[in-house]
Amino acid sequence: MASHGFPARRIAALMGVSESGYYAWRSRAPSPGALRRAWLTRLVRDIHQESGCTFGARRIRQELLRRYGIAVGHTTVEAVMKGAGLRGRAGRLPGPGPREGARTPGRRWIVDVLAVTTLPGPVYAAVVLDAASRALAGWSTAATADRALVHHALMAAAARTEPDAPAVYEPLPGCSFTQRAGSLGCAPAGATVGDCHDHAAVAAFWDTVHRELDGPCSRPDPHRAGERLAATLDRFARQVPAAGAARPSTP
């Protein structure tokens, strides 16, 4: 109130505090706790903005630990977000849990190809999901849909899960593909058509992608739809621990 021009003496009398105490408080340097809170707020705000305003406290806490090695409690992140006026969006990544008998992570993949409409023309995105964790193992985008598109996505997945894998990752035991990928002529050699569980995992994954693309931060720009899709897939891939660096591939 004093900073808005109200007399400090009258305000102090109204609040039952001394005027000298008010001026001492105003000239006091911020405490270490306040400085740390301001620093943490800036990091949380940056992560929240980079996520398209979709990350909640749980995923921001994971990013703080992964990026900066900062281990903080869930309630602390929630309090920081509330104080900064930040909110996440509902939904978890990835979708339904692995079916009974699924292999260990990195041993069985699901391949799908989706066409995204943009003003310059369609952009095709190939994704490789881990069947056990439902996590994004690799991805690739291109202006055309063919086996090369899927090949680059598989190479990205191989680089993440097996850094010493050969340049050509065939045959592909345990790899399945969706009917959509098959209809586009993008089925990898040696793979089989996925079952209902595989298709459900892919559908849940794309639902999550669309929720992130439709985030509240800004209005969707059809000219940059391909860029926003690539940035979202890259963000999903970076959230998953990998044996090697996350390297998306674009032919």
Provide the CATH topology of the largest domain.
Nucleotidyltransferase, domain 5
Helix/strand-derived category reads alpha/beta
- Beta-strand percentage? 5-15%
Helix coverage percent of residues?
A: 40-55%
- Give, in order, the helices and strands: HHHHHEEEHEHEHH
User: How many beta-strand segments?
Assistant: 5
Tell me the radius of gyration. Answer: 24 Å
Unreliable residue runs = 93-104, 167-171, 243-251
User: What is the average per-residue confidence, as pLDDT, rounded to a whole number?
Assistant: 78
Label the CATH architecture of the largest domain: 2-Layer Sandwich
- Overall shape: elongated
Sheet with most strands: 5 strands, mixed
Tally of separate helices? 9
Give the termini separation.
60 Å
Highest-level CATH class of the largest domain: Alpha Beta
Number of domains: 2
Strand order of the largest sheet: 3-2-1-4-5
What does this structure look like?
This protein is α/β, with parallel strands linked by helices. It folds into two domains: 2-84, no CATH class; 109-238, Nucleotidyltransferase, domain 5, CATH 3.30.420. It contains nine helices and five strands. Helix 4 crosses helix 5. The model is unreliable at 93-104, 167-171 and 243-251 (pLDDT under 50).
